[in-house]
Amino acid sequence: TWKWVVGPMFLYLCERLVRFWRSQQKVVITKVVIHPFKTIELQMMKKGFKMEVGQYIFVKCPAVSKLEWHPFTLTSAPEEDYFSIHVRIVGDWTEGLFNACGCDKQEFQEAWKLPKIAVDGPFGTASEDVFSYETVMLVGAGIGVTPFASVLKSVWYKYCHDAINLKLKKIYFYWLCRDTHAFEWFADLLQSLETQMQERNNAEFLSYNIYLTGWDETQATHFVVHHEEEKDVITGLKQKTLYGRPNWENEFKTIAGKHPGSRIGVFLCGPEGLADTLNKQSISNSEADPRGVHFIFNKENF
Length: 302
Fold this sequence. Notes:
Distance between the termini: 34 Å
Strand order of the largest sheet: 10-9-8-7-11-12
Subcellular location: Cell membrane
Low-confidence stretches: none
CATH architecture of the largest domain: 3-Layer(aba) Sandwich
Number of helices: 7
Radius of gyration: 21 Å
Order of helices and strands: HEEEEEHEEHEHEHEHEHE
Shape: globular
Structural class: alpha/beta
GO molecular function, one term: metal ion binding
Catalytic activity: NADPH + 2 O2 = 2 superoxide + NADP(+) + H(+)
Mean pLDDT: 81
Main location: membrane
CATH class of the largest domain: Alpha Beta
CATH topology of the largest domain: Rossmann fold
CATH superfamily of the largest domain: Nucleotide-binding domain of ferredoxin-NADP reductase (FNR) module
Pfam families: FAD_binding_8 (PF08022), NAD_binding_6 (PF08030)
Helix content: 25-40%
Largest sheet: 6 strands, parallel
Number of domains: 2
């Protein structure tokens, strides 16, 4: 028995030593941004830190807990000179981080008063392969939308600086959420991308659909009254918010018809049930002919 136990224990100790070494490396919080609905954005810098799109890190704040590490998806792009995470305040640890950063105070917080942060990572996910395809479908459900903040930012930077050599030519983005107000920071990002792409006369590069799956009678009435307005009353985007859930069979067939003979990457960050649905649709809508359209499914569950 000891032969089977010694190996895994040795690897576990090595992993703990590496994490301890990483936790001692200096991390500087350069900016704290407070977003609506108790969501904060931490912008940080660390010597030698290199990331790819969609990756995540483990974060420890000794001022809150000396032992707890929590995973957060990176919402910045590799092209930016900092890395960032968005933290929604939903528990004791996140509440402690919120207070430690001085977000509960009205006055301006000095940089030297910000708490020390330890960072372990980054660690890879399936989203890193997004630039391997000419056409991609990005599907984010609820908080699963965070990896695509990094992806969309990076795509835009690459498009602006070297559009000719960028393999990715078309993005279909789907965002399913019960309440868009909880992720207003992401709606702001989409609004910025929408405006910049219109200025460059390439609004077709990114097609996106926002589905509100949880809504009440008040919202429905508001929607009917303001339906004819140019911008959506909930998100402020030109693309109107849709209510309910998407018909995935129709979506896949439509995209397959527009891109015959293509390899289309399907990327999901969401629950297991949605992953099963998209996987089945990817298989059923892929052609047997090697020269036909093929959907390649990649998932990240939470």
